[in-house]
Amino acid sequence: MKIGFIGLGLMGGPMAANLRKAGHALKVQDLRREAARELLAAGAQWSDAAAADVELVFTSLPGPREVQAVAGQILDAARPGTAWFDLSTNSPDVVRRIHVRCLEKQIHMLDAPVSGGPTGAQSGRLALWVGGDRPTYDRCLPVLKAIGDEPFYVGPIGAGSVAKLVHNASSFMVQAALAEAFTLGVKAGVEPLALFRALRQGATGRARTFDRLAEKFLPGTYDPAGFALHLAHKDVTLALELAKANGVPMRAGEHALAELSEAMQRGWAERDCRVAMTLQEERAGVSVRVAADRLREALA
Fold first, then answer.
1. pTM (two decimals)
2. Taking a C-beta distance cutoff of 8 angstroms, is the pair 229, 273 a contact?
3. 290 and 241 in contact (C-beta within 8 Å)?
4. CA distance 168 to 173
5. Are strands 150-155 and 127-131 parallel, antiparallel or unpaired?
6. Which is nearest to 154 in space by CA: 142, 162, 166?
7. What is the pLDDT along the chain (300 residues), one digit of tens a residue?
8. Comparing C-alpha atoms, which of 268, 253, 262 is closest to residue 280?
């Protein structure tokens, strides 16, 4: 395909290179021509209007401001029927507003943020979460697979960006909790490597984080308990007592205990500890239930 690629940074450069390796005719554009040096040597063409006279446009930019800055250029240059995949981590609202403008020009914009970092961009081991027109996604799927090995259609325009933001927020929330946990363990007297090896042997250490959501939370089955709420409450209480004795602040731990305590007050002591997660559903006014057969299919 004839492809335009705008944004040749740590992520964009390697992704564009993989498109070129896959045999696509590539026009590239960046604020710095030097960023395209290797791509030009490999046969790509430099352009100040990379969206012109191509079938497909990719943007890989730092964020909403930069995507909005190039949107007008793309709308002016791209011909009707062009597909535009924004690989940036973007605001869903910004994506949806630009999408409306694209529809007026008969341009198919899809949000397709990626996950896997620069190493994944180089190797092609990337997840792409795509929101937008499904037929356009299906038509361009072979090209997307040249960028990342795990493209996934999430839903309507903006859905890909929502998925990426939820993924990254989850990652950094877990990161903050692990920082607390490890400072507690080390200050309480356990050598860091020994602590790391010990925690990896536990049930949580062996399981993929998001896979565990399918055990109780997503199907909404908290009886019988796999691990009773009252036991979880006892354990976190003991951990926070240990933290206090060792002078370790535990903001995430205190929040976890507050959630478990509120669930205990509901009379759920004998139910599975993950029933406390439903408190957040109530606050947000949303249900995350998934039918068991659909979960089995997703995990297969």
1. 0.93
2. yes
3. no
4. 9
5. parallel
6. 162
7. 999 999 999 999 999 999 999 999 999 999 999 999 999 999 999 999 999 999 999 999 999 999 999 999 999 999 999 999 999 999 999 999 999 999 999 999 999 999 999 999 999 999 999 999 999 999 999 999 999 999 999 999 999 999 999 999 999 999 999 999 999 999 999 999 999 999 999 988 888 889 899 999 999 999 999 999 999 999 999 999 999 999 999 999 999 999 999 999 999 999 999 999 999 999 999 999 999 999 999 888
8. 262
Phi, psi of 109 (to 5 degrees): -95, 135
C-beta of residue 26 within 8 angstroms of C-beta of residue 53? no
| Cβ 217 vs Cβ 288: under 8 Å | yes
Q: What is the 3-state secondary structure (H, E, C) of the chain?
A: CEEEEECCCCCHHHHHHHHHHCCCEEEEECCCHHHHHHHHHCCCEECCCCCCCCCEEEECCCCHHHHHHHHHHHHHHCCCCCEEEECCCCCHHHHHHHHHHHHHCCCEEEECCEECHHHHHHHCCCEEEEECCHHHHHHHHHHHHHHCCEEEEEECCCHHHHHHHHHHHHHHHHHHHHHHHHHHHHHCCCCHHHHHHHHHHCHHHHCCCHHHHHCCCCCCCCCCCCCEHHHHHHHHHHHHHHHHHHCCCCHHHHHHHHHHHHHHHCCCCCCEHHHHHHHHHHHHCCCCCCCHHHHHHHHC
Q: Which residues belong to the active site?
A: 164
> Closest by alpha carbon to 60, among 17, 5, 106, 115?
5
Measure the CA–CA gap between 253 and 165, rounded to whole angstroms: 23
Kindly list the distances between the CA atom of residue 12 and the CA atoms of 187, 212, 283, in Å, as whole numbers in the listed order: 42, 33, 39
Q: Which two tokens stand for residue 1?
A: 């395909």
